[in-house]
Structures are given as C-alpha cells and as structure tokens.
Amino acid sequence: MSLKLGPAGVPLSCKGRTIVEGMDDITALGLEAMEIQTVRPVQPKHFDQYWQAGILSWDSGIEMNLHGPYYAELLGNRRERNRSLAKMEASMQAGKIINARHLVYHVGPYGEYEPGTEANEQVANIFSGIVERVRSIWGEQDEDAYTAFPWISEQEPSLVGIETSGRQELWGTVEEVLEVCNHVEGTVPVLNLGHIHARGHGSMRTSEDYAELFDMVRETYGGSKFYCHFAGIEHRMGNALHYTQIKKSDLKFEPFAEFLAEEGDWMDITIISDSPLLEHDAMYMMQHYDKARQRLMEIRARDERRIKLAKESGLTPEELELLEQEVAEAKAREEKEESKASTVTAKAPSKMMSFDSPEDDDDLF
Amino acid sequence: MEGPPRLISLGEPGGSDNASAVASTALDMGVPSIIVTSTHGEAFETFDHGAVDWKKLMETAHWMVNCSSLVNLGKSPAMAWSASMTFAELEGCRNVMVVDMPGDQETISKTWGLVVGKMRQIHVLFFTSEAMKAVSSLENMEEDDFLSQVRAKTMVPIVCGIISGGSAVSVSHAMGSFEVDITEHGTGIVWLAGFLKSLPYSGTGISGIRNASSW
Fold this sequence. Notes:
By secondary structure, chain A is an alpha/beta fold.
C-alpha cells in the first residue's frame, strides 16, 4: 500500500512562506505530499517560485498537487462559467510548471439545473474541455522545455480532480462526482471526507463506513488510486459549516486509519490535510495510521504464533483455539474460586477482631 | 491592566491600525484587551516575534484580532500575524480578521491571497468598505452578494462588512444574512468591538448573532 500525507498549503510552522521552503519543512516532518492553494488568480510573477517547486518535487519525490480557485460557478450562466474557467486557466498553466499530479476543482452551485443527469452531463462536458486544455498545455513546448521541465516528457499530464462538495445546494455528491469521472477520461474523484461526512449528516463513523465508500468508488470508477482531503468539520442538516481541527470534530480519523491498515493493501492513496492545523493534523493522521498498523501487526503475530503452536502440537488452529479457550475459562474459574476463598479467610480474622463481638468486650482495655 | 485579557490584537506601536483600534475601543467598553506589539525602542518591522508567549496570552482570551494590512509591514509582523492565528486555533481562541486596504493599495491582491490561505482559522471576517470594493472587483464578484458568497465558499462562520457608505453593516452567517444600522456607533470598527464584546454572551444560533450585532 502507498499512503502519502501532506498539508493543503505551506506548513503553518514554516519559517519562510514560499512553496519551496514549505516543501523543505514537509520533508523534515516525514510527509510526502503537498497541495498548493491557488485560491487567488495565479499571476505570472509566481511562476518562478512554482518552477523551483516543480524541480524540487522532481528531485525529491514529493507529490505536488494544485487546488484551483476557491469559488467556481461552472453550472452558472455563460458569463459565470467563463469567469470560472478563466480563473482555472491560470491554475492549469501552473500545474504544468509545478509538476502537479492532480489539479483539484470545485463545480459550485447547481444554478438553474436540478440535480440529475442534465447537470451531470453539463459538468462532464465542461470537464472534457478542461482535460483537453490541460493536455494541450502539457503538449505545448519546444525542445528547450524538456530540460527546464523534465517531467513533461516522463510524466503523464496532471489528472483533473473533481471535488465532492459539503453542501446540499452545491453540485458534488459522491455519486455525481463518480458518474462524471466515469465518463470523462483524465478526471479523478477527489473525496473530501469532511464534505462527505457533512453531506451525509455525519455518515463517516466506523471503518465499515469507509470500506463501503471505497468499495463503491472501486466498483463505480475502478482503479486503486485515490486522492482525498481530510479535516475536522462542523455540520448541520447535511451542510458543512466550518472546518475544525480533527480532535474537535465528530469526524474521527481513527476509523479511517483502521480501514486503511486492515483493508487498504490494494490502495494507492494521497490524503491532504485541509484542517486549520494543516501539517499538525497531517502528522496526527500519520501517527494514527502507524498505530493502527502496529495493532494489526500484533494481532497477526498472535495468530501466526497460534498456527505455529498448533502445528507443533499436532492440532488444527481451530482445535488449539478451542483448547486455549477452555484453559482460559478454567483459569478464570480457578481465579474466581481463589478470590472467593481469600475473601472468606480475610473476613474470618476481621470477625475475630471485631469490637462488636461480645467475646472481645473484656479485652478492650 | 488588571485581570486576564479577553481580547488580544496584534498591532503597530502607535496603534494606528484597525486591529489596535478594535482592541482599544473594546478596552474602553470594559473588555480586558491587550495589544501585542514591538517593545519600546524596537522597530516593528523587525521586532522579536519569537519572544511573544502566545500560549500564555491566549489562556483565557476569547478573541484574537488581526488586520490584513499588517502583513505588508515587514517579515516580523507577517510571522507574528500567522503565528498568532495558529496559536489561537490551538488554544481555542477565536480569530477575527479585519480585511482593510494596505498602505500600498496595489498589494491588496497579495494581502487578500494571504488572508484566503488562513481562512480555515478565521471565525469572524470583517471587511472595511474600501477593502470590500477592492476584493470584490479582484474576485469578479458583485458587491451586493459578495459577503454571502465569501461565506458560502470559505465556510468562515461570520462574514461581515461595512455597507451603505458606512452607515450599516451586513452580517452573513450559516443561516442567512441581515443588515444592521450602525449610525449610532459612528464607525464599523466601534461596531465590531461591541459585537465581539456581546457575541460570547448573546446566546446561540441566529438570534445570538442578531442580538450581538445590535448591541
């Protein structure tokens, strides 16, 4: 299994504020991914910084990703859609320069569409155009570009990620995202687990909930590569209200860690922390994943030992387990009896020493 | 000052910035407030921000107030600005951000970009009227709908801003938005100080926000 964790932006504890300085900190923390927030229109003066980050990511193996404008209205009228696409264009250009593996976009409100096929078709059409544009950007270069951007010749263009939304009035349920990703090659679902939890009225509670979600994604979309966002979230009536740190939310990471450790062998997953405590919560997730793995390994080691012992004593593992159960029960019975006996013996001298006893009255003074 | 601080702001030594103005107004209203700034004889641009014990300052504080224009004043204020918000998040102190116009108005794009990067840590986002004009045009958004659009996208719990030429404030929150006349308070900053004073004790939900906004 491959699990990459990282923050959505330059780490808060980073002394500098540039992306490259942020990447240094990420490496020092043992994290392996980063999502750059191009929430504001990208300006050409930022491109030098992006290119340096791209080179560093190419050399160090840190997975770089890019988040598009924070506000989009792809289902709005022509003017609104074009405005959103114009903002996205700059992030597509930046994606090539920074060697982004994923470009993450929101769709925005349903606008005049009703949730359903028509809206999904419109989103699919728009994202076909976006994928095409990303590919043409990656294809546009002369010979010199290969030296400046070595990843262009050796890597696939950035995948276009469509993020699940956290509010009822926004396009982007898991089903909608999967349907569009299924129809548009070059797109991937971005599972924002906080949003899914909020929209599902607090649905992500146990490791089984995660198993169900990822099975659905595997069955509908296929593949083993996943890109997720995780943060604590406050929600009400199926709508996300506010991001919080993981510890303060009813969306816990432990069940997700348990699922990843127990059933995630087949997965290649990147989890981006978009909590208010960016890298702190990314580290928190890493620790919980390590703990879950350790616990699983202990259980497996115990099972293996049982099998080995069974073989040595000529029993089947089931017979040995039964035998162990009988021994444990007998031991528990024995301990219970022993404790009963010791209570009786403890009580006896207390009776003898009791001042209530009429026989002792004479010995009081 | 007696007693623990309830409101902290990061501001210039002269107190001419909006964050300091909120703190000093709140202090006048009886809210224990302190302004974190450079020490006497130290330049604010290069002050020793590492010496600020944010954790201790925030032990009993409700609000950490910052203004966006401060990040342009040098590396130290920018670092302190960022650190104060992270510590506030860790210590359970709510962040308030006053988005105002920087001295060099050309840098509003950079300043706003930095605020957006911190959005997840902000609890109350307050726009001065000039900043609202500039940012809405930067974002290509209609000014009328700007606050609720920002709230919907950034999920900041309370987004407010000065409207109607300074005579009212529009407040946008999770369940809708409303306007409050602030003529009697004089300025938006005074209104904000009173709002912050009242909000922790005004009850929950929409009515709580309404009560606090018409303090």
